[in-house]
Amino acid sequence: MRLNVRFSGAGGQGVILASVLLAKAYGLGEDYNISQTQSYGPEARGGACKAEVVISDENIDYPKVDSADVFVAFNQMGYNKYCEQVGKSAIVLVNSTLVETEDENAYCIPATDIAEEMGKPFVVNMVMLGALTKLLPKIYYPTVEAEIKENFSASIAGPNIEAYSKGYEYMANSSCSNSQFLIE
Amino acid sequence: MDKSATKAGYVVLQGNEACVKAAIYAGCRFFAGYPITPSTEIIEMMSEEMPICGGAFIQMEDEIASSCAIVGARWGGKKAMTATSGPGFTLMQEAIGYAAVTETPVVIVNVQRGGPATGQPTLSSQQDIYQARYGSHGDYEMIALAPSTVQEMYDFTVKAFELAEKYRTPVVLLADEVVGHMREKIIIKKGTMDVMPDKIVGTASPRADFFTGKNVLVEGQLHDERGRRIGHLAEKSGEFITKLNSKISNNVDLITDIKTYFLEDSDTAIVAYGSVERPAMDAVRLARGIKDDRVSATVKFVKNVFRKGVPAAMRTDYSHLKVGVIKINTPWPFPQGELRRLTRDVKLVIVPEMNIGKYYREIERALPDKKVVSLPKCGGNLHTPKEILDTVLKEMGVNE
Predict the structure, then answer these.
(1) 3-class SS of residue B31
(2) Residue B320: what pLDDT?
(3) ipTM of the assembly?
């Protein structure tokens, strides 16, 4: 199995952190081989930002993603830039607060709205990560949760875990959710 | 971030972070540097780790000072390292030459970015391949290691310290942005290893090591075995320079580290160093029809097929192509002998590089009876496997 995941969004949305946590969860929690890369502009915030995670049970030679099996868009700019470079039957997950898509099969979650309702707009990446965890194969809620706890100090782990669980639950309750079609 | 270098086991680290862990494992206890993308993580993490493990970290005013500081620190008895990228590496050349002539074992990490000048801070390249070898003035030999994975970034950093101490010479770890910023699962070792070698190989001035209680005279001018100036004596100077170079050039085969994949039956070889080896490897798997499939509804079926062997009908059109990979881990000193031996049965050699096509010239010179094709890629992106495969097909005359 080789799973190519691409995240795109703006610098400051936590795109890279979300990808790192996913990579750690697959790599350390589930014992897959992982390779996480990123590209970003010189700006600290606002510039285009892309992160890629390759997950495989074999050696990973080419560490980047050509055609994504899973595409996660945090904002419209990122969506427009990479929405063409996805494989057939790819999982597309978008932050529907900021992204308008014509793709009927895309999974939508108003992540920015959810984060702002919590009063903590910076946890948008955790909401997306929660939703993504529900959609992806071979990854489980506690594995990612453990990596989030590991990554943050105790004082800020709380809101991040809360956002993560909200994202997961939203996707679990969403009518179109179906994580089974990828793997038979 | 894992704070302690003494914890062993599997970790997910960035290449730059792995380099820091490895340096501390190898006994590096002095780091001087000036932050520059894409090597900043090394400096950042060193500033945290050095005080923890009892070493010293200094952020210097620039790269010239950084490289001079590590030479001085090694004279003071501590293993020392600095890290930089393109523009900083240019500034460090003066002290690299000085370390070479004073036979000071130091490690310089160059996480390459695009150049010339300020160039491309956030994109990758392999443009400094010749600068690593010939950057400073005068006749000296250089050892450079090129990692392609995060695990290799860890292993080669340790190896760089070993080689530096063994040959009493500066060693360059020639990484690039792709490896430096990539995160992978690696295994790191516990504690600190003593990399001091049993035997120091044929130094030009075989004196006591620095800071071992003996008086040591250090001299940037050409000097005799006791450190006295001989720059005005042509004959003795000639002997010194010959010795300085031959301690490495006579041991090329010992230093050389080359890995080969699928080369046994190949008539075409892709020669790569650094991160470009990875798409090259993927291209070879594609060419031989053994590429693992993408996750899809047929993944189960395909996996079964892999277990039982690929039936002929399922192979791609190219699966009869005999392509292999030669991965050069030590681009300098140039592994001429080993390369010639490995390519005995090969007719076509393809050299993909993230530059205008530089190392290709060395390979072409070393293999005059082979067809050597350069596959340069400029702009800062890694080659895709498809690009390399296309060149292989074109040069082999398939599907034309």
Answers:
(1) strand
(2) 67
(3) 0.89
